[in-house]
Design a protein that fits this description.
With 79 residues, the protein is α+β, with helices and mostly antiparallel strands. It has one domain (3-72). The protein is built from three helices and four strands. The strands form two sheets. A two-stranded parallel ribbon has the order 1-2. Strand 1 (3-7), helix 1 and strand 2 (32-36) form a beta-alpha-beta unit. The radius of gyration is 14 Å and the shape is elongated. It starts with a strand and ends with a helix.
Length: 79
């Protein structure tokens, strides 16, 4: 079983703590993979762009939660 942990530069410490908790539960460190926001060209290209959310125009930012959309890349990430 692979464990995928999404993160960005602002959440690296939290992702390492999450990985440590899995390792403590006898999950192999080799089965823990980090999906990095900064390594995803598609999402990075959207930073600063406008989008519609709940009827309002928003601007996509590289903030604490920018990596959330990476969860949809899991199957592609592990082939």
């Amino acid at each position: 079983m692979k464990i995928l942990i999404q993160r960005n530069n602002k959440q690296k410490l939290a992702s390492k703590i999450a990985a440590a908790s899995f390792i403590k539960q006898d999950i192999s460190a080799n089965d823990i993979l980090f999906m990095e926001f900064e390594n995803n060209a598609l999402l990075n290209s959207k930073v600063g762009k406008k989008y519609l959310r709940k009827g309002k125009i928003k601007i996509f930012k590289n903030d604490l939660q920018s990596f959330t959309l990476l969860r949809f890349y899991g199957p592609e990430f592990v082939n």
